[in-house]
TrEMBL record:
<keyword id="KW-0233">DNA recombination</keyword>
<dbReference type="GO" id="GO:0016887">
    <property type="term" value="F:ATP hydrolysis activity"/>
</dbReference>
<feature type="binding site">
    <location>
        <position position="64"/>
    </location>
    <ligand>
        <name>Mg(2+)</name>
    </ligand>
</feature>
<feature type="binding site">
    <location>
        <position position="179"/>
    </location>
    <ligand>
        <name>ATP</name>
    </ligand>
</feature>
<dbReference type="InterPro" id="IPR008824">
    <property type="entry name" value="RuvB-like_N"/>
</dbReference>
<dbReference type="Pfam" id="PF05491">
    <property type="entry name" value="WHD_RuvB"/>
</dbReference>
<feature type="binding site">
    <location>
        <position position="63"/>
    </location>
    <ligand>
        <name>ATP</name>
    </ligand>
</feature>
<dbReference type="InterPro" id="IPR036390">
    <property type="entry name" value="WH_DNA-bd_sf"/>
</dbReference>
<keyword id="KW-0547">Nucleotide-binding</keyword>
<keyword id="KW-0227">DNA damage</keyword>
<dbReference type="GO" id="GO:0048476">
    <property type="term" value="C:Holliday junction resolvase complex"/>
</dbReference>
<feature type="binding site">
    <location>
        <position position="216"/>
    </location>
    <ligand>
        <name>ATP</name>
    </ligand>
</feature>
<dbReference type="GO" id="GO:0005524">
    <property type="term" value="F:ATP binding"/>
</dbReference>
<dbReference type="InterPro" id="IPR008823">
    <property type="entry name" value="RuvB_wg_C"/>
</dbReference>
<feature type="region of interest" description="Small ATPAse domain (RuvB-S)">
    <location>
        <begin position="180"/>
        <end position="250"/>
    </location>
</feature>
<protein>
    <recommendedName>
        <fullName>Holliday junction branch migration complex subunit RuvB</fullName>
        <ecNumber>3.6.4.-</ecNumber>
    </recommendedName>
</protein>
<dbReference type="InterPro" id="IPR004605">
    <property type="entry name" value="DNA_helicase_Holl-junc_RuvB"/>
</dbReference>
Length: 334
């Protein structure tokens, strides 16, 4: 799964090395940047922390990077945690009571916060108070602690799994979109120069085309192609190096990897083009439902290869053509 945008261990260092350090280095997502700059400036003028921010969108598009940039811009500390890491109310209480005024608390994978934790978060977000219940039964008492002013920045790949009440407590909700190809090219240029890689312009285009419009995938491919170029040549990334390395990784000119092709192949051949439900598709491809939803489907939908209908996933004509198959006659789709 070389192009799966989810962070893998091999990405951790690469993500850190290549993480944009200034607004200018954060390519694309102009609308989000403009909105965030206003939130930040308005807060600064009022002398308050910025409103709580929710960032959502597919993996590897730059949510964590944005959270760090906001902290940098506000000149504040950022405390990083995640939904699954906060298991008990006590965990959250200790994080919150240890915040310094105006700190940013970054909660990644916010859709995995459990209900109990969410309920403690509501008053913390709204009125900066922490309600803690001490004891059990009739002698239980609630004590209320005041918290310092802080900003919660939450990130999720699955906005649909976030509860309504939690969503409604954010002052800014931003959806990250897939990048334009030219933006991915700019990201590749920056990464190549940071990693001291010579990247020929045509090769850059090829890698950009294969990167699922996703910065993390682009950076990972750059590294893999560089490895190929070092083993087979001088390390310079030429068109030939890019072509051969991508072929070796079984990535086609649409950026599809074997699993993507397996998924559209299954929809077409096993389910006559669909519609097919997620469960059946997962069973037919031996992939996990969550992986299909989070990793494969967003990109396949983005490039117009599959569509989601109320009755399930459907393969489009483009998907048939890509596999060299004849699409059914007009009217039979969907
Ligand atoms: N706008 C951008 N400009 C330049 N590089 C970027 C941009 N967005 C992301 N990147 C690069 O992609 C890497 C992955 O981004 P990041 O970790 O912020 O994604 P994410 O949305 O938090 O992913 P996940 O959902 O897996 O947590 C970053 O380390 C950075 O190198
Ligand atoms: Mg992240």
């Amino acid at each position: 799964m070389i192009t799966a945008p989810k962070q893998k261990n091999e990405d951790k260092n690469l993500d850190l090395t290549l993480r944009p350090q200034k607004w200018d280095e954060y390519i694309g997502q102009k609308n989000i940047k403009d909105n965030l700059k206003i939130l930040i400036q308005a807060a600064a003028q009022r002398g308050q922390p910025i409103e709580h921010v929710l960032l959502y969108g597919p993996a590897g598009l730059g949510k964590t990077s944005l959270a760090h940039l906001i902290a940098r811009e506000m000149n504040t500390n950022i405390r990083v945690t995640s939904g699954p890491a906060i298991e008990r109310v006590g965990d959250l209480a200790s994080i919150l009571t240890n915040l310094m005024p105006n700190d940013i608390l970054f909660v990644d994978e916010a859709h995995r916060l459990n209900k109990m934790i969410e309920e403690v978060l509501y008053p913390a977000m709204e009125s900066r108070t922490l309600d803690i219940i001490i004891g059990k039964g009739p002698s239980a008492k609630t004590i209320q602690l005041d918290l310092p002013p802080f900003t919660l920045i939450a990130a999720t790949t699955r906005i649909g799994l976030l509860s309504g009440p939690l969503r409604s407590r954010f002052g800014g909700i931003f959806r990250l979109d897939f990048y334009k190809e030219e933006d991915i090219q700019k990201i590749l240029e920056r990464s190549a120069s940071l990693l001291r890689i010579t990247l020929e312009p045509e090769a850059k285009k090829l890698i950009a085309k294969s990167s699922r419009f996703t910065p993390r995938v682009a950076n990972r491919l750059l590294k893999r192609v560089r490895d190929w170029a070092e083993v087979h040549g001088t390390g310079v990334i030429t068109t030939e190096a890019a072509n051969k390395a991508l072929a070796l990784l079984e990535i086609d000119e649409q950026g599809l990897e074997p699993t993507d092709r397996k998924i559209i192949d299954a929809i077409i051949k096993k389910f006559h083009g669909g519609p097919v439900g997620l469960q059946a598709l997962a069973a037919a491809t031996s992939e996990e439902e969550e992986t299909i939803i989070e990793v494969y489907e967003p990109y396949l939908m983005q490039i117009g290869f599959i569509e989601r209908t109320p009755r399930g996933r459907v393969a489009t004509h483009m998907a048939y053509n890509h596999l060299g198959l004849v699409p059914p006659a007009q009217g039979q789709l969907v």
